[in-house]
Write a structure and sequence with these properties.
Elements (H helix, E strand, L loop, with lengths): L1 H28 L3 H5 L2 H18 L12 H15 L11 H5 L6 H17 L4 H11 L3 H4 L4
Protoporphyrin IX containing FE binds next to α4, α5 and α6.
Length: 149
């Protein structure tokens, strides 16, 4: 009996070690560098606060938000940016097409929003390469956000 238990021990150890390696390596190799460059959740929140202050003050974008719940949108945008940057978050909002359909956002309004985001990132000292990386993830979304005839 003792012999059996002993002989199983290395197998159990091997299984435990491989489970540990799998757990460690999945987090060690997850690319959260962009998330860290933005300063994690707090850094993203600062950028989004400033981004929304600007969009709500900008005559080219503010009317689109009439009647919308800004705290709700900001919460969802924080989740979405966090996920896009490889952070430890889950996005619980709608698809970009569903969220923006019928709002009448055109190319000019989208470009104005991106301009406001760029100003918000610059104000919060986000490194230039990190700004570019986020923008390269957002720009293709224009296709779903803009209302096209
Ligand atoms: C890449 C750029 C953008 C991203 C990533 C983005 C992302 C989001 C997200 C995550 C939501 C919440 C989703 C949900 O309600 O489930 C949202 C809602 C909304 N967005 Fe955007 N957005 C972008 C550009 C814009 C622009 C340029 C405008 C207006 C000029 C705009 C206007 C709105 C409005 C009005 C809502 C609320 C819709 C509602 O409550 O029914 N968005 N957006």
């Amino acid at each position: 009996m003792l012999v059996l238990t002993r002989s199983r021990l290395p197998i159990r150890c091997a299984l435990a070690v491989s489970a540990l390696i799998a757990t460690c390596s999945s987090s060690a190799f997850a690319d959260d560098s962009l998330y860290r460059q933005f300063g994690g959740k707090a850094g993203i929140e600062h950028v989004i606060d400033d981004f929304y202050d600007r969009m709500l003050d900008d005559p080219r974008t503010k009317t689109f938000f009439d009647g919308a719940s800004i705290p709700r949108i900001e919460k969802l945008l924080n989740q979405q940016f966090c996920v896009l940057m490889g952070g430890p978050c889950v996005y619980t909002g709608r698809s970009m097409r569903r969220a923006h359909e019928g709002l009448g956002i055109d190319g000019k309004a989208f470009a104005a929003g991106i301009e406001d985001l760029k100003l918000a990132m610059a104000k919060n000292h986000i490194p230039a390469d990190a700004q570019k990386k986020l923008l390269s993830k957002l720009m293709p979304m224009a296709h779903d956000i803009e209302d096209r005839p």
